[in-house]
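Re: [ENG-882] Designed sequences occasionally contain unexpected residues at chain ends

Forwarding the minimal case from QA. C-alpha cells:
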C-alpha cells in the first residue's frame, strides 16, 4: 500500500536540482560534482544522478569494485524497474552517485517507444516511499554569521561496508544533465519541485543555448499548472575570465536579467582541470580547498543551501564587483 502522505512529506523535504544550461562543455558536471561534495561535507545527504551518455559524473564510482551482479545504472532504473536505491552508491560520507552508461540512449528510446514519460515519476515516488524523513533541525553552520571551509568537519573516510549502505534519507538530488536532454531529460524535468541551476559560459553559443533552454522549458510547461513547472533558481557565470570587454558586457546583461537568482561566479581555475586527473573522480574539495575555485564552490554550495551569512572578503573579485556596481547604476536601483 502506497503511503501518499509520506511521499508528499518526503518530496517537500527534498531539493530536486537540475544542473542544466543548454550547451555541452559549459561545466554542468564540474558544478554538480563540486557542489554535491561541499554539500556532503557540510553534513547534507546528497545524491548525484548522472543522465549523460558521456558518463563523467559516474566516474565518482569505480564500478569494477562492485560485485558484477550488483552493478546497476540509471538504465536499469528506467528499463528494468530497479529501485533507485539499488543503483545508488555511496562515494563519500553522505554523497551518493547513480551512474549512467554509454548506452543510456537505449533507456531514452525505451521512454519514447513506450510513451513512458511517467516512468521516472513512478521511480521517484517509489524512492520517496523508501526514504526516511530528513532531520528537521538546520545544520549547525546555518546559524553562523561568518562561515569558512575549516568550520566544517572533514568528510569521514568510508569503510567498504559503509560504501554499500543505501542512504536512510536524502536532502538533495542533483541531476547532471546532458547537453541535449532529449526524452530522458524531459522526463526528469517533469519531476516535482524541480529547480534548474545553470552554469553559464559567457560566450556566444553557450549564451544562445542558455536562452533557448529557458524558452524550451517555458514552452514545454506552458499548459502545466504553475506548481508543476521546473523553476530557474540559480544562474552563475562559469569558467569566468575577465579578458575581454565582451565578457564584461555579457556578465552585466546576465546579471541585470537575473538579479534575484544570480549567484557569484566560478572563475576559470587550472586547479579544476587537475581534479580530472584522478580515477575515481575527485572534487576540488579533495584536491585543493584553498584554491580560488575551491572557495568559490564552497560559497556557492552554502548559498544554494540557503546560507545568508558572510564568508569574509577572501574570494571577492574586483572585476566582478565593478560589473555589479556598474549594472546597479544602469538599473538605477540598489541591486543585490
Ligand atoms: N572553473 C574551471 N576552470 C577551468 N576549467 C574548468 C572549470 N570548470 C570546468 N572546467 C573544465 O571544463 C571542461 C568542461 O566541463 P564539464 O565536463 O563540467 O562540462 P559539461 O557541461 O558537464 O559538459 P558535457 O555537456 O559534455 O557534459 C572540463 O574539462 C573541466 O575540467
Ligand atoms: Mg557533463
Amino acid at each position: 500500500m502506497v503511503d501518499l502522505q509520506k511521499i508528499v512529506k518526503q518530496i517537500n523535504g527534498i531539493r530536486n536540482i537540475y544542473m542544466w544550461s543548454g550547451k555541452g562543455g559549459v561545466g554542468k558536471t564540474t558544478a554538480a560534482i563540486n557542489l554535491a561534495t561541499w554539500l556532503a561535507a557540510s553534513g547534507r545527504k546528497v545524491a548525484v544522478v548522472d543522465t549523460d551518455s558521456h558518463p563523467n559524473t559516474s566516474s565518482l564510482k569505480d564500478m569494477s569494485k562492485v560485485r558484477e551482479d550488483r552493478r546497476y545504472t540509471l538504465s536499469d532504473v528506467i528499463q528494468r524497474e530497479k529501485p533507485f536505491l539499488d543503483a545508488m552508491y555511496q562515494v563519500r560520507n553522505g554523497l551518493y552517485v547513480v551512474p549512467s552508461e554509454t548506452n543510456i540512449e537505449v533507456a531514452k528510446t525505451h521512454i519514447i517507444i513506450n510513451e513512458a514519460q511517467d516512468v521516472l515519476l513512478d521511480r521517484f515516488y517509489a524512492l520517496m516511499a523508501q526514504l526516511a524523513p530528513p532531520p528537521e533541525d538546520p545544520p549547525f553552520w546555518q546559524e553562523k554569521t561568518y562561515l569558512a571551509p575549516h568550520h566544517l568537519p572533514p568528510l569521514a573516510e568510508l569503510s567498504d561496508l559503509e560504501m554499500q549502505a543505501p542512504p536512510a534519507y536524502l536532502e538533495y538530488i542533483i541531476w547532471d544533465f546532458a547537453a541535449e536532454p532529449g526524452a530522458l531529460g524531459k522526463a526528469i524535468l517533469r519531476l516535482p519541485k524541480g529547480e534548474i541551476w545553470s552554469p553559464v559560459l559567457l560566450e556566444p553559443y553557450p549564451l544562445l543555448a542558455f536562452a533557448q533552454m529557458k524558452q524550451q522549458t517555458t514552452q514545454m510547461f506552458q499548459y502545466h499548472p504553475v506548481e508543476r513547472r521546473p523553476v530557474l533558481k540559480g544562474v552563475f557565470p562559469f569558467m569566468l575570465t575577465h579578458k575581454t570587454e565582451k565578457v564584461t558586457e555579457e556578465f552585466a546583461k546576465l546579471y541585470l536579467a537575473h538579479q534575484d537568482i544570480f549567484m557569484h561566479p566560478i572563475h576559470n581555475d587550472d586547479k579544476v582541470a587537475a581534479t580530472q586527473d584522478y580515477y575515481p573522480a575527485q572534487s576540488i574539495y579533495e584536491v585543493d580547498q584553498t584554491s580560488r575555485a575551491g572557495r568559490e564552490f564552497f560559497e556557492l554550495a552554502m548559498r544554494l543551501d540557503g546560507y545568508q551569512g558572510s564568508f569574509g572578503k577572501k574570494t571577492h573579485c574586483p572585476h566582478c564587483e565593478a560589473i555589479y556596481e556598474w549594472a546597479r547604476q544602469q538599473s538605477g536601483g540598489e541591486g543585490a
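QA comment: On inspection the terminal residues look reasonable. The pocket of magnesium ion (ligand 2) is lined by residues 28-29, 52, 56, 176 (CB under 6 Å). Proposing we downgrade this to a documentation issue.
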